[in-house]
Each structure stands twice: as C-alpha cells, then as structure tokens.
Amino acid sequence: MTHEMAVTPTSRAASLRDLRRDPKNGIVAGVCEGIGKRLDIDPLLLRIVFGATALASGLGIAAYLLAWWLLPVEGAETAPVSAVQQRSARNKRAVLEVGFGVGFLVVAILLTFREIGLPFSDALTWPLVLVAAGGALIWRQSVGRPGSAAPAAPSAVVSSSAIAPLLIEDSVGESGPAVISRIGIGVTLVVASALVFLQFTGALAAASDVALAALVVAIALVVIFAPFFVRLLTSLSIERAERIRSQERAEVAAHLHDSVLQTLALMQKRADDPREVAALARRQERELRTWLSGAPARADGERWLAAALQAAADEIEQAHGVAIDVVAVGDAPLDRDGEALVAAAREAMLNAAKFAGGADPVAVYAEVGGERMEVYVRDRGPGFDPAAVPADRRGVRESIVGRMERHGGRAAIHATPGSGGTEVELVLERGEAP
Amino acid sequence: MRRAREIDRTSLVAGLVLVAFGVVLLLDRSGALRLTFGTMAPMAFAAVGAILLATGLGRRE
C-alpha cells in the first residue's frame, strides 16, 4: 500500500510575466491563443476585441504587435539550457529592446518639437534617432554588468588564449565576434547619423575634400607603421598566451595539491576502512568532474540549486557514510523559497541516510523548468508508514511537508512499508521565470 | 508568511502608459484637448519606447 502526504500548492495569480503566446495553435502569432489560455478566457473573445479596436482606431494592431514583440513563446523556456545560455539570450534581447526603446523615445520627442513648432527639421531628427540607437548599443555593451564575468573552464581558457588578445571579451561570457559585431552596428549607426546630418546641411561636399586629404595621410601612415603594428600585436598575443598557460599550469598544480594529493594521503591513512575509502574516492571524483566540466564558481556569493543540493549530499555522506548520487537537470539561483526546498531535500536525504541503511546509494534527482523546481529523493530502504509516525516526531511533518507548504510548494511522500523503499517528492512553483 | 513580490517594472510602466492614454483620450472626449495624427504619433512612439526601455532594463541582473 502506498501512503501519500500531499500539500496543495499555493495558487499564484497570473501576472504579466506569466503570459505567453502560442504560435502553434494561434492564427497569426498566437497572442490571443496564449493570453486566453493563461487567463482562462476564450481566445475568440480576445480576437474580437483586437479586431474591433484595430478597425475602430488602429490601436488593436499596435497592441497586437507590441504583444507579439514582448510575449515569449509558450514552451520555449522549458528546454533545459545552461544559466550562461539563458543570460546570453536575455542580454541579446535586452540590448535590442533598450536600443529600440531609446530610438522610439527620441522620435517621440522630436515629433513633439515639430508639432509645437520648434525649429527642428529632418536634418536633425533622423541623425539624432540614429545617434540615439547607436549610442545606446555602444553604451550598453561598454558599461556591462560588474561582477558578472563567468570564469571559464581550464580547457576553454587554453583554447581561446591564441586569439584572446584580438577579441573583446563580453562581461557575460559572450563570444568576441558577437560583441564586436554589436559594437560595429552601434558605431555604424553613429557614423551614418553624422553623414546624414552633413548631407542634409550641405556640408558633406565641403567635408569630402578634408576627408580625402585625411584618407591619403592615413594610408601613408598605415603603409609605414603596419609592419611594426603587426609585430607588436603578434608579440602581445604570444606573451598573453604564455602568461595564460603559465597561470593555468599553476592553477592545475595548486588544485592537484589541495584536493587529489590530500585525498590520496587520507585514503592511505584510512586503508583499513573500505567504506570510508570509497566515500573519499566518490567525493574526490565528483569534485574533479565538476572542476573539469568548468561549472562556474558563483563568485558573486549567490547560491544555486545544484551546488546547494550537492553540498548537502556531501555533508550527509561524510557524516553517515552513505553514498548519495545527485543528478541535476537545469539550475537556478536560490531565493528564500529555493533555500527552503534545499533544506527540505536535505532533511529527506538525512532520513534516507539514517533509516534506509547503506547498501544502495540514495538517489537525488533535481529538475529545474521554467515554471517549477522539482527534487526527488529516493532510497531502497525498508520503507515506512507516514501515517504511523508519532506526533512528536517532527522531521517529516514539519521539516519537509510543513516547510514546503509555508513556502508555496508541496511535498509528497511515497513509501511502501516492507521493501519498497521511499520516495520524497518536493515541488516548488516558480513565481518568476528566469 | 510569504514575502511581498518584487515590483514588475514592465507591468508598472505598461500600466502607467495605459492610464496616461486613457486620460488623454478622456480629455479629447471632453473637448479640453484636440487630438490629431500629429499629436497622437509622438504619444504612440513614446508609449512603445517607454515599455521597450522598461522591459530591456528589467532584464538586467
């Protein structure tokens, strides 16, 4: 017989951030279909509203286009992608939105000036629009976000070292060519705005003579100094590559000394305890795999789900000598609710380690999706009857079920007394998609 | 006790823009303001620009 203790999830009202469009089932871009599905409204009604407002004043068309632009596609965020990929995609979208937003605002201001009769003309309007959009792109790319540099894996550092000096590294780990092309678009827009302004004011013809002279001098300077410049770039590139290799070698040596050699020494001392030796080897293997895979160390002090679960598993494994395998699909930073999820999972792991015996490893599986985080803790112990747990034993009732309930999640315990093992299911709905 | 949700900047700006549009349309209806394409166009551009800017800045971490 399977016993379940379940807690109803706290319902959360759909906010603007929860809205999605559903192009697969929609007619044009799936805006009405997606909004209707989320708000539980017949999409046909929304189509009628959009159509009527479009025919009456054209406002419906603008609103539909705006929703098309702003609403993410249904299901696009459920695919497990790394945090760096999510951040990169979000950054690309944000750059476009900021650029277009500034451009639209400048157009609005200039059209207002024109409407109230200030002496502005197209000679100033369109160059300013281009300058605003180009400047926004360059500004956003140049300022970046402090403290968000993603440390690269050792192999990535070495492989990129040869071309690193010629690339501008983005603060969120985007590739150099992408950053250069974005800055290039910004610079092109600013230069184009200057040319448009000169053309409108008639100064371009006069400026062309000066530009020609400057071009000739520039070509002469390039011919003279190009070999020196190329040699300087090459030597800088080689020097930087050697410096990176040297730092990398020192880092590998330090890591080997601090972790692998220390563990090997400890294993020699504990050679008479096979269980302890196995636990040490497992912990070292996990640490090495994490290091080699280049999982980013969260330098900003933010705790993430996978690392927090792994840390809890390590701690319990060390204290109780029971192997705990942690598998995480996707990852997310932890807020207060996420910390509660980890604490509940830790309690479940602790119970499994205490009561399930150490014959088989405890399995922890975590999955992070766009809408929820789920953690399952399974063991192959003798199982128990949750209903038969005494009232004064608060481990399961308060530390797992109660804790999840207080933080808007739910916990279910599937246990079969005898030999069926126990599975603790923890689900936390996410208020905001990443 | 659950903590209060953070303010969604995009929703806030979009709401304020809609309110502003409503006020302007009301003024036009009451005769206090005379809306033409020349006055509506900058407002539409400003509304879209403000929402896009708020959305883009809201994506920053």
Q: Summarize this, please?
A:
The complex is a heterodimer of chains A (434) and B (61). Chain A has 434 residues and is of the alpha+beta class. Helices cover 59% and strands 8% of the residues of chain A.
Structural overview:
The complex is a heterodimer of chains A (434) and B (61). Chain A contains twelve helices and five strands. Chain A has 434 residues and is α+β, with helices and mostly antiparallel strands. In chain A, helix 4 (83-115) runs antiparallel to helix 5 (122-143). Chain A is flat, with a radius of gyration of 30 Å. The interface between A and B is medium-sized, with 39 and 29 residues.
Task: Indicate the topology.
The complex is a heterodimer of chains A (434) and B (61).
Chain A: H1 31-39, H2 43-56, H3 59-70, H4 83-115, H5 122-143, H6 154-160, H7 176-201, H8 204-269, H9 274-293, H10 305-320, E1 324-329, H11 336-355, E2 362-368, E3 372-379, H12 395-406, E4 409-415, E5 422-429
Helix pairs in contact in A: 1-2, 2-3, 4-5, 5-7, 8-9, 10-11, 11-12
Chain B: H1 9-30, H2 37-58
Helix pairs in contact in B: 1-2
Largest interface: A-B, 39 and 29 residues
Number of strands of chain A: 5
| Overall pLDDT metric of chain A | 75
Low-pLDDT sequence parts of chain A: 1-13, 145-173
Order of helices and strands of chain B: HH
Describe this protein with a few key phrases.
heterodimer; A: 434 residues; alpha+beta; 12 helices; 59% helix; B: 61 residues; mainly alpha; 72% helix; elongated
